[in-house]
Design a protein that fits this description.
Blueprint lengths: L7 E6 L2 E6 L4 E5 L2 H21 L13 H13 L4 E5 L11 E5 L1 E2 L2
Parallel strand pairs: 1-6
Antiparallel strand pairs: 1-2, 2-3, 4-5
């Protein structure tokens, strides 16, 4: 099974941290960066599981985020360092343990 990559940019908006996924235009939010990483991971895994249970490819039908978020992502890679790396092994199917990594990079909105 090929790895599934989710690219996201993290930023603050209205007092909350937001992770906007650029390939599949969805967002997660939380009060702290640490909570944001957990929320994003939970949301991604839930969506993958729901899509697979429905017999679809993960994130089937999602479109890319607007250009504004791609630009933020590109700028973050150039000037910011990763603030957190997490590695999780979902326990859904022990015959297919998928490694999931999240990496959040904060940028100014």
């Amino acid at each position: 099974m090929n790895p599934f990559v989710i690219r996201a940019v993290a930023f603050q908006e209205d007092g909350m941290w937001v992770a906007r996924c650029i390939d599949y235009n969805f967002a997660s939010c939380a009060e702290t960066l640490d909570e944001l990483a957990d929320e994003l991971l939970r949301q991604v895994l839930d969506q993958i599981e729901a899509d697979r249970d429905a017999g679809q490819e993960p994130f089937f039908g999602y479109k890319a985020a607007p250009k504004k978020y791609w630009d933020m992502f590109a700028a973050a890679e150039a000037v910011s360092r990763p603030i957190e790396n997490r590695k999780r092994l979902p326990q859904r199917d022990p015959r297919q343990p998928a490694k999931v990594e999240t990496q959040l990079i904060p940028v100014a909105a």
